[in-house]
Inverse folding.
């Protein structure tokens, strides 16, 4: 690679090459391509290297060792793809290298965050005066919400947790189901709550909280509910939970890492009924909105609580009438996450976002139908974009899963659902087409037949 070549040109060509060939390569790296990772295991160079050569090595040895999660046939976890417009906005924003913490450091980053956050409140029809923060992922969005909840409920009891700490605080209660995503427990821990403090509520066969089994709530209770069970895609009954919580002065947080987007679709919105009555909400941009990773947002009704937790002041920090991004997030310095949020929302519009949700859910229905036709058992009510299925016994299901991964056509993950070992599909990439679903079903059928023959 010549020394004079522009490193950005090399990165651009590598990126184009990556995107253009995504669908013709295996979804996960083969054992041969993994060998190329050895090229990185070298001693730290004494002298610097040519910049273009560094990027070229990344592409040659790195690109084949990525997992094709931005393609149309990756159905593991819930990761989402990457909208080209969002990737491009991310590139430009990275080139700007703006610090989005303070408006004076980046008027464009500050304003776009403000606009994107308000657009999101309108799109999701949440209280328009809620405040919001742009964070790395749903885990941090939930942490930010819980820290705010803790502050608000204790303040209402006359206790200033920021000043006095949790040690002498009135004991708070945490109420949730075992079915809520495990990152909620992590977020609770970051906010100073222990696992033994959690009061678990029983769930139904789809993993939804049973509202009748909620314990008596009070004004020191934080109830966590979810929009989108990681396996079944089911939604808790927000209407019933928020009604009880409001009466008791409790706080309700909604983990809607992917499910909150259902509110943008008129076909799926009924699942979210009553959600608007909650106190805080978290949602990932890097899942169903298909933003590049490290993009999430949380919303909170109680602006003072958020400011109590995250507000920072120092004589050198210039404050003016504009929104100061760092007063809503755990970090002071951070990248301009609002830029790609804004770009994707503008590119898609309300209709485009609804279309992404509807399209994924239609694909999920086709998957469920196709799986049943093959002779596999679908174990959940397919209400959203998630499917849990099995091939019967655990051994057989494991074998089929192995055969499916061996086809290289698609990738999906294992899970345990209602005590049963199962496979799961999440359709959350904008790149997935009907042809991808068809090709995946053909591969699953081949894998199933191969597994049956092998036993
Ligand atoms: C329901 C739910 N909550 C929280 C998370 C954690 O999100 P993140 O990895 O963005 O922190 C996930 C991730 O899949 C999720 O599905």
């Amino acid at each position: 690679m010549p020394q004079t070549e522009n490193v950005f040109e090399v990165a651009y060509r590598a990126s184009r090459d990556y995107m253009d060939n995504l669908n013709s390569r295996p979804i996960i790296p083969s054992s041969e391509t993994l060998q190329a990772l050895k090229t990185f295991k070298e001693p730290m160079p004494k002298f610097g290297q040519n910049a273009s050569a560094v990027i070229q090595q990344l592409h040659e040895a790195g690109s084949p060792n990525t997992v094709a999660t931005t393609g149309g046939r990756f159905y593991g976890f819930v990761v989402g793809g990457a909208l080209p417009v969002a990737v491009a906005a991310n590139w430009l924003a990275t080139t700007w290298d703006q610090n989005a913490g303070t408006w004076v450091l980046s008027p464009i980053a500050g304003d776009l965050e403000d606009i994107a956050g308000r657009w999101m409140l309108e799109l999701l029809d949440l209280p328009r005066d809620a405040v919001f923060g742009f964070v790395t992922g749903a885990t941090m969005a939930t942490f930010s919400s819980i820290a705010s909840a803790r502050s608000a409920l204790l303040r209402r009891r006359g206790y200033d947790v920021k000043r006095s700490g949790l040690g002498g605080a009135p004991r708070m209660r945490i109420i949730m189901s075992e079915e809520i995503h495990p990152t909620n427990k992590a977020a609770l821990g970051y906010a100073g709550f222990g696992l033994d403090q959690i009061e678990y509520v029983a769930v139904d066969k789809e993993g939804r909280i049973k509202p009748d089994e909620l314990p008596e709530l009070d004004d020191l209770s934080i109830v966590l509910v979810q929009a989108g069970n990681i396996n079944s895609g089911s939604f808790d009954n927000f209407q019933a939970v928020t009604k009880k919580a409001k009466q008791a002065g409790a706080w309700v947080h909604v983990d809607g890492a992917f499910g909150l987007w259902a509110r943008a679709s008129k076909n799926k919105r009924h699942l979210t009924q009553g959600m608007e009555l909650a106190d805080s909400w978290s949602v990932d941009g890097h899942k169903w909105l298909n933003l590049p990773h490290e993009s999430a947002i949380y919303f909170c009704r109680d602006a003072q609580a958020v400011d109590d937790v995250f507000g920072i002041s120092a004589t050198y920090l210039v404050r003016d009438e504009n929104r100061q991004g760092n007063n809503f997030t755990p970090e002071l310095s951070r990248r301009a996450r609002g830029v790609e949020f804004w770009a994707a929302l503008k590119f898609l519009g309300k209709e485009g976002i609804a279309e992404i949700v509807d399209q994924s859910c239609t694909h999920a229905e086709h998957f469920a139908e196709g799986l049943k036709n093959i002779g596999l058992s679908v174990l959940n009510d397919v209400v959203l974009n998630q499917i849990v299925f099995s091939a019967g016994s655990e051994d057989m299901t494991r074998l089929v899963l192995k055969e499916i991964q061996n086809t290289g056509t698609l990738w999906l993950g294992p899970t345990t659902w209602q005590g049963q070992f199962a496979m799961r599909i999440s359709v959350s990439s904008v790149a997935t087409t009907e042809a991808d679903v068809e090709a995946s079903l053909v591969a699953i059928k081949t894998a199933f037949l191969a597994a049956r023959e092998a036993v």
About this structure: Residues 337-374 form the longest helix (38 residues). The chain has a mean pLDDT of 97. The chain has three domains: 7-67, 87-344, 351-454. The pocket of pyridoxal-5'-phosphate is lined by residues 77-78, 137-139, 181, 183, 226, 228, 230, 255, 257-258, 284, 296 (CB under 6 Å).
